[in-house]
Specification:
Helices cover about 25% and strands about 30% of the residues. By secondary structure, the chain is an alpha+beta fold.
Length: about 130
């Protein structure tokens, strides 16, 4: 069986971080998807437009992500029930098709780090680009 996962990230130009709450590295996503038997089915909600709330079995936990709008878009496509894999801090959301999945990492507020900027371009073109920023 082949599992298809993708990460919706519209901020790829402004952030290059793979820390919790940012981009999902393909190796981490692969490990998380392999450990889906450890997942907890959760209700996923966006609170105040900036916090991701997961609820299950009377538990309610809030997390951060650098692009909450991307998570909201994924929720619109596949519904608000996802799989939380705590070991990898990965949230798996369904897509329109049963094989389609979108994966995100989430960060608790204690471990949150801001986005990291892309490396500046070098050479003549990079000098022009960096002068414009």
């Amino acid at each position: 069986m082949i599992l298809v996962a993708r990460s919706i990230v519209r901020t790829a130009v402004t952030c290059r971080s793979y820390h919790d709450g940012h981009h999902v590295h393909h190796i981490r996503a692969r490990h998380a998807l392999a450990d889906r038997d450890l997942a907890v089915h959760v209700l996923v909600e966006i609170v105040d437009g900036k916090t991701v709330q997961l609820s299950w079995d009377g538990n309610r936990v809030e997390f951060q992500h650098h692009d909450v709008d991307a998570i909201a878009q994924a929720l619109d496509l596949g519904g608000d029930i996802g799989e939380w894999i705590p070991r990898w801090r990965v949230l798996v959301l369904p897509g329109r098709e049963p094989e389609d999945r979108t994966v995100f990492t989430l960060s608790d507020s204690e471990h949150w780090s801001d986005c990291t900027s892309p490396k500046p371009e070098t050479g003549p073109i990079g000098q022009v680009l960096n002068a414009l920023v």
